[in-house]
Description:
By secondary structure, the protein is mainly alpha-helical. It has 2 domains: 13-96, MazG-like (Helix Hairpins, Orthogonal Bundle); 99-129, no CATH class. It contains 5 helices and no strands. Helix 1 (13-26) crosses helix 3. The protein is globular.
Amino acid sequence: MHASGDSLSGLNLEGLRVQLASFAAERGWEKFHTPRNLLLALVGEVGELSELFQWRGDEDARPGLPDWDDVAKTRVGDELADVLLYLIRLADACEIDLSQAVAAKLQKNATKYPVQKCFGSSAKYTTFQ
């Protein structure tokens, strides 16, 4: 699921949502874009992204992917984009304002994981309550 046309750099979630809705409408795909179908497509894209990392081990998947060639990094970018696009489309089909949901979740996480209690720890939030 790739949007075509203008450059996507600088677009916000709402801009992407509108562009994806238009992309689907132009092709008559709304009837297929049920929450269930979009979720399954999203899971499939996460699987494709996972395959790129499968069997590499932590040492070969360090931040920045320094040992990956440009072709492999491009594939990671393509799959990340697919995941994001399906996530935005799914939120739209569920009539969830993803920007508001993200802002609310970030606030909840800040409350669940106060810096002074969790810095440097990977423990679950219940440890800090």
